Fold:
Amino acid sequence: TGDLKGAATALAGAVATESGADPLRPPLLIGWEDSLSCNYLKAQQCFRLGWLALLAVGESRAAAQVAKDEAYTEELKRRREAQYAELIRGALLSARPLLRDAGRLYKAELESSPKMNLLDKEEEWQLALE
Structure:
């Protein structure tokens, strides 16, 4: 997975200057979509931010388990579990619209560009995943 915080800083900085660099709280498209005019670039950025949030959820789940195991009282275990559950829930709620927007923007770009229509389905997916 690597440096998720560093990746979040780079991605968020590319589209939103005042956004934080927390991979669990990525900037949503509505906050930065006017800064880019190319649907393909917007789609790429949405996909990357959404994917980063999903990777961060995986790391957070592992960290939550460690924190829960290290808690010395049942009350502390419940509090830590609730804190991480809320973080994970927020990240998933942020990732979903970003990934949905990425799909919508990819589709709009494919439909509007004659050059993109020359690609077959496999090439479209390869392009989208690059």
The two ends are 17 Å apart (CA to CA).
